[in-house]
């Protein structure tokens, strides 16, 4: 995960649009008893989907997988998922290698697993997603981004 030549920056508008598109898709899979958000990335998509599907029962499974340098380490489960999984919807922002999703699936075998984005190595582990990106693409979420200036494509012609 250290070398990611391609990037896929996602704006707040795009994320909202994709979470709504996922909600449309999930309507035919429900109704769901509740949403299990995989922290922290699943929290924002879970809030949008909960609003669209009118779901008020929301729980979390708290997992740390990647360091601040975008390197994957041992999975640390800080809080387990609830025991019941039938009729529940699991929401995460993305599935990459599938390590996180596999661990959550083991805790919630009968739940429907949905993510906004998926990479090839993990996409078969989830039931629903909206956009696939290549394995060598790093997705940047809006909560990790800030507006900043960028140089023009051509610079220095009139200097
Ligand atoms: O398919 P994988 O290779 O396991 O990667 C996907 C997971 O990695 C990220 O979470 P991360 O552990 O970075 O924590 P965060 O959600 O708190 O940012 C992302 O939100 C997914 O949960
Ligand atoms: O592409 C990614 N973007 C952000 N977080 C991630 N965690 C695993 N893969 C990714
Ligand atoms: Mg996460």
Automatic annotation (TrEMBL):
Positions binding 5-phospho-alpha-D-ribose 1-diphosphate in this chain are 40-41, 92-100
EC?
2.4.2.22
Known cofactor(s)? Mg(2+)
- Which EC main class describes this enzyme? transferase
Q: How does it sit in the membrane?
A: Peripheral membrane protein
Residues annotated as binding xanthine are 96, 139
**So where does Mg(2+) get bound?**
93
Q: Which NCBIfam families match?
A: PRK09177.1 (NF006613)
Report the family membership.
Belongs to the purine/pyrimidine phosphoribosyltransferase family. XGPT subfamily.
Q: What do we know about how this protein assembles, alone or with others?
A: Homotetramer.
The name of this protein is Xanthine-guanine phosphoribosyltransferase
> Which lineage?
Bacteria, Pseudomonadati, Pseudomonadota, Alphaproteobacteria, Rhodospirillales
């Amino acid at each position: 995960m250290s070398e990611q030549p391609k990037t896929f920056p996602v704006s707040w508008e795009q994320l909202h649009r994709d979470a709504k598109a996922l909600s449309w898709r999930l309507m035919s899979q429900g109704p769901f008893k509740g949403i299990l958000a995989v922290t922290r990335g699943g929290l924002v998509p879970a809030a949008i989907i909960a609003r669209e599907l009118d779901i008020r029962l929301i729980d979390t499974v708290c997992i740390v997988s990647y360091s601040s340098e975008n390197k994957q380490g041992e999975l640390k489960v800080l809080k387990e998922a609830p025991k019941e999984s039938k009729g529940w919807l699991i929401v995460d922002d993305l599935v990459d290698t599938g390590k996180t999703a596999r661990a959550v699936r083991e805790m919630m075998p009968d739940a429907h697993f949905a993510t906004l984005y998926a990479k090839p190595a993990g996409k078969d582990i989830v039931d629903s997603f909206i956009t696939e990106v290549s394995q060598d693409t790093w997705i940047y979420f809006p909560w990790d981004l800030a507006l900043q200036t960028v140089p023009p494509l051509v610079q220095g012609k009139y200097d």
